[in-house]
Each structure stands twice: as C-alpha cells, then as structure tokens.
C-alpha cells in the first residue's frame, strides 16, 4: 500500500515517514501543496495524509478542488484545529481527521483503515494481477509462476507489482525506484538493476521482463 504524506514540519514529516515505513507502507513525502500536487499527478496512492495548514495554504480547499475533478483517494487530515466544525469538514471531505498531538500508532491504524477502504472502491488496481503464467496476489503477498510459489523480497515484490499493473507497457526507472524505494535511492544508483536481475532469475524461463532502452522495463510482450 502506497501513501503520500504532506507535512511542512521537518521533524514530524520524518517521524510520519518512519512510522509508516516501519508498518510496511511505501511512502512518498512532500513538504507543501505544489510538491504534493506533482506527486499526485504522476503516482497512484491508496491514501494521502495532509497537514491542514501548509506554507501554500489550507489543504482542505486543495482536496476539495481535487474531489471536484474526480479524485477519490481517501485522505487523513492532521491538524491542531480540533473544533467540531473543523472535524466535520475534514471527515466529510477527506475520510478521517486526527488532531495534534497524536500517537503514531493511532495514525498508522487510521491510514491502514483508509487504505482498506480505498482497496474496495472498485477504481483501484485489482488485488490479483496476471501476466502470462505469472500471478501476483497483492492481498496474500504471494507470486506464482505456472502455479509454483516464488520467494521474493519486499523490493522484488513491489517492482514486479508495478510492472504487472501495466503489463505490456514500459515503466520508467524513476517510477520503479519511487514505488519500491520511495525517495531513498537516486535514479543513477544500480539498486534497481540488481532487483531486476534477481526477478529474472527467480521467474525462470521463458523471460518476461524486458529492458526498454532509454525508458525502463516492461513485463510481457511490448504494446
């Protein structure tokens, strides 16, 4: 499950990132609305966490603007504003509302609940992905080829899941790095190449993952 966290306080942003990663989420972070807007335009998320008051303004009108354009990702608002009106506005528009100060364990539990809600919306990717004789079950965190269960690391699973979500279409190196390592790995590092080699070895023959020069990788036959 992938989460976007938008928080301008550096220490709190780092704490939120660490707590969610520790609970098994893939996390992207932004410090203000313009960066969040860019991330939402290029990535898919199961949940978004927004501090209400950011340098560019209140996140509530921003989320309302996105909702009017069909954006349906559940949102958890974080704020020191805890009046009844504020809470009701956040619940109606976002999905959940958590007043500061809060326990990280409660924040993680709320994000997990929102992600589950997102997964039942019918607009998210299917729980089970298939390409040729490879089957990836996101709910069980299992991958099989030809019915044989494969043992993958978390990074390998995330990269394979991203490739299979758009089978036959190239996925850029930068997107694969964001999906599995978030912002912890620079695009020029070779960590992705290592994972791709491991995936190719574990998937056995015939090869399914192909290199697209100048772009990245794809799984299955090119579109």
**Assembly context of the chains:** single chain
Number of strands: 14
Unreliable sequence segments: 120-126
Fraction in helix = 40-55%
| Overall spatial form | elongated
Span between N and C termini?
A: 27 Å
Counting DSSP H or I runs of 4 or more residues, the number of helices is 8
Properties at a glance:
single chain; 223 residues; alpha/beta; Rossmann fold; Arc Repressor Mutant, subunit A; 2 domains; five-stranded parallel beta sheet; four-stranded antiparallel beta sheet; 14 strands; phosphorelay response regulator activity; WalR-like; DNA-binding
Task: Explain the layout of strands and helices.
Elements (H helix, E strand, L loop, with lengths): L1 E5 L3 H13 L3 E5 L2 H10 L4 E5 L1 E2 L2 E2 H10 L6 E5 L4 H10 L1 E5 L4 H16 L8 E4 L2 E4 L4 E4 L2 E3 L3 H12 L5 E2 H9 L9 H13 L5 E4 L3 E4 L4
Parallel strand pairs: 1-2, 1-3, 3-6, 6-7
Antiparallel strand pairs: 4-5, 8-9, 9-10, 10-11, 12-14, 13-14
Organism: Amycolatopsis rhizosphaerae
Protein name: Response regulator transcription factor
GO molecular function: phosphorelay response regulator activity; transcription cis-regulatory region binding
